[in-house]
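task queued by scheduler; priority normal; single chain, no ligands, no partner chains; default sampling; output format set to structure tokens
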Amino acid sequence: MFIGINKSYIYCDIKWQVEAITNILKNCIEHSSSNSKINISYEQNKMYSKIEIKDFGVGVDPEDLPHIFERFYKGKNSSSDSVGIGLALSKSIIEKNNGYIGVESEVNRGTKFIIKYFH
């Protein structure tokens, strides 16, 4: 995957990484208002390449936050058609490609997903 103006590379299965990041973006869109924005940033250092995806939506309830990547877990703010598999799949894909995913959230202020791919 090529990212940015400076040549930065992440060696991974691109098809599955697109799936993982698409699931995260879908989650951000579903939990944000229609006129909201989503920030995506990238940085790299000697240890890892980092992608941050931040929405300004409803946020995740503190009780739900530790479970957000669990398969079939549906939090308080989940839509009725949610299955609870997207974020669990994203985590699995990222970790299988020598990566890490974490999340920070504040109710009514938004959620930030932090993805690191280690070199």
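post-processing summary
- The chain has a mean pLDDT of 88.
- The two ends are 14 Å apart (CA to CA).
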